[in-house]
Amino acid sequence: MHGIGPGHANARSTIIDAIRAAGVVSRTGLVAATGLTGATVSKEVRALLDEGLLVETGNAPSTGGRSQVLLQLQRSSRFAAGLHVDHDGVSLVLLDLGGAVVAEQRVQHAGAVHPQTVVDAMVVRVHDMLAGVGAPRSALLGIGVVSPGPVTPEEGIVLSRPALRDWLGFPMAERFRQASGLPVVVDNDATASAVGELWTGGARGSAAFSTLYMATGIGSGTVVDGVPYRGVSMSVGEIGHVCLDIDGPECWCGNAGCVEAIAGPGAVVVEARSAGLRIPAGEVDVVQAFGQVVTEAREHDGAARRIVRRSAEHLAAAAQTLCTMMSVDLVVLTGAAFDVAGDLYLPVVRERVARSFLAHDAGTVRVEVSAHARSAAAVGAAALVMQHTLVPRQFSTRITLEAAPGADAPPPAPHAALAPSP
Ligand SMILES: [Zn+2]
To answer: Is the CB of residue 219 less than 8 Å from the CB of residue 148?
Structure first.
């Protein structure tokens, strides 16, 4: 682990995060951004250079005084693995320290296999991916594991659709830690997707943003001043289970008329089938079947287009609710379902948010589709590891680097569950 961990002094973490946020920055820039003394910055930067986490990358243009050596994170010095355990399979990514996805895999139908078998197989795959990019095992910071619905480190998945029944109560944080010998972070997939945007640069310039996440299910994650909003319970951000119609269809969560039950990918597929569209069952998962409806909607002005449009209007209402409740300046549409349908949903969501006074009263609300929509949850899982291992959980100082090139949103301060490293 190279001594990197949550026990470190704040100065070190503050500097790592300021450099991540800025991209490239000088020692003088770090002093200005962090409020630390020049001596402290010099000492910590020297240690980080010695450990290989930082690299010097040329000089800033001279502004009359001495020219400044620029620093950036050494992208290939550390990696984090992210796993998304979903109803239809497991997605794996390897994220480098610069927030780039350097390897990616998908394993179908993991829900049908015993969880411990999945854990053992995934740890092997993570190490294979690491070897595949030529990195030593010592460069792996940890493994992040996310899944739909409420998740806790002790109980794992607390509430789920039937496909993940075997995972209910399975202590996945502990089992992944045992199998890998690494720190393991577990969390909800939608929350993780927001942390992923923070680390991959998708939320640059935003003070407070939400992800509207849609894969098999629908959820949201919100980050305020670089800190994921977690409320007081594990069911934070379950926008898919906000009621839009009290007389609406029953939802698997126990309520009726939820956004997800009315307009989620599963509902779209069911509606399309009853409208006569031929979507093969069995071989395809929910998001793939949803993708077939979306393709039909794109190509023909018929039932599929009407059904997808209706779904988009409900998702737009969900996005509007997010803006109204959370007062964010950015909503990122993400998740595998928005990867296949983002172009059809985006204008509908934008239009509704734009004409909503309450959603909009603090200024312009941007709505975008994530650059990592397809693998957003796995990317977010890996990003959670970066936060936990490089930035202690207590860290919540807001840093802005106005003068630095590529200045980013303020740094993250995670509160997600971290299983102790061995
Ligand atoms: Zn529900």
So the answer is: yes
Helix (H) or strand (E) holding 12: helix 10-22
How much distance in Å is there from the Cα of 218 to the middle of ligand 1? 9
Cα of 253 vs centre of ligand 1, distance in Å, is 4
Question: How close is the Cα of 245 to the center of ligand 1, in Å?
Answer: 11
Distance 186 CA to ligand 1 centre (A): 22
312 Cα: distance to centroid of ligand 1 (angstroms): 18
From 236, 141, 250, select the one nearest 192 (Cα to Cα). Answer: 236
**CA 282 and chain centroid, separation:** 29
The answer to whether the CB of 11 falls within 8 A of the CB of 40 is yes
Report yes or no: 314 and 262 within 8 Å, Cβ to Cβ.
Answer: yes
Per-residue pLDDT tens digits for 277-316: 888 766 578 899 999 999 999 999 999 999 999 999 999 9
- What CATH number was assigned to the domain covering residues 205-369? 3.30.420.40
Which residues, by Cβ under 5 Å, contact ligand 1, an ion?
A: 241, 251, 253, 255, 258
Q: How far is the CA of 165 from the centre of ligand 1 (A)?
A: 17
How far, in Å, CA of 186 to CA of 416, rounded? 7
Q: Which of 372, 382, 389 is nearest to 80 (CA)?
A: 382
Taking Cα atoms as reference points, which of 322, 102, 312 lies closest to residue 222?
322
Instruction: Please check whether the domain covering 78-197+375-402+409-419 is classified as CATH 3.20.20.20.
Output: no
Backbone angles phi, psi at 294, to 5 degrees: -65, -40
pLDDT digits (tens, 9 = 90+) for 201-240: 888 778 889 999 999 889 999 988 777 887 766 667 889 9
Identify which of 378, 355, 311 has the alpha carbon closest to the alpha carbon of residue 91.
378
- Taking the model in full, what pTM does it have? 0.84
CA distance 147 to 165: 12
Pick the CATH number of 10-76 from 3.10.180.10, 1.20.1560.10, 1.10.10.10, 2.60.120.20: 1.10.10.10
**Contacting residues for 60 by C-beta, under 8 A, at least 6 apart:** 26, 67, 68, 69, 70
Judged on CB neighbours under 10 Å (0-12, 13-18, 19+), 256 is middle
